[in-house]
Here is the input.
Amino acid sequence: MALSVIDLYRDILPKTNCKDCGFPTCMAFASMVVSEMHPIKNCPHLTPELVAACEKELDAQYKTGKWLKRDMARDALQWAKEKSASMKMEDLPERIGGRLVEKDGRTGLELPYFKGHIVIFADRVTNAAGAELTRWEQVFIYNHLAQGGRALPTGKWRNFVEFPNTVSKMKSMIDHVEKPLIERFRGRADALAAAALKIGGKDLRSDFPESNVVMRFQPLPRVPVMLMFWDGDDGEDFEAQVKLSFDETVTDHLDIESIMFLSERLRDLLCADE
Ligand code: SF4
Here is the structure.
């Protein structure tokens, strides 16, 4: 018989709200056990026999997903893997770049990724050291494979807002990418340039001398990104600005959600590597 939050609270837990489990109430603890697989043995006021009996019931309901909080990253990764499953590994180097490698008897695609490289297998994506990337980063990579584009960059840059269906994402781009970079680097153009060079940025300022920083990144072989930064002036006649631009072919290789992910990843790397 499955154990709901109410069952657990009403029939199993002591209802003393003693906080020894680290939660403020027995109800809060019950909710975490049922929906997020928090170990029931973390309540020290249950007998070992009762814990064992509950674990048996809980394991059965966890397996069916009953009452478990939806794991968005797991679902998205499953979906992205299924979408990319029809891609033949042998076709990928010609289409998205990289080269085929053999690791532990399996064929993978070694793909340049920012300044390093990753290895893509049918069931997982690892960094150069063999550690699995975060699930959201793997979703991003599998979506890139599944997008199926073959276009090579043309060198014609477009602002994010110039691509179709980006209007609803502009607020996210401003709030999650542009504003954090401005807050971090306002008055510190040299620090931004140094951080960009560290993660493989190529200085293009000589082509755009009106900007304080212009860097071209190559996060993926077919996907260049350009960052432009104009610092504000002390008299505050104009505010600092950051803009990311993408090659006009980017939507052949990434959907809009993936472009957002890539932009946020770039923000993280710039801020972390400073
Ligand atoms: S340790 Fe047990 S009894 Fe105390 S608050 Fe947590 S669940 Fe309730």
Q: What stands out?
A: Residues 13-14, 16-21, 23, 26, 29, 43, 45 surround iron/sulfur cluster (CB under 6 Å).
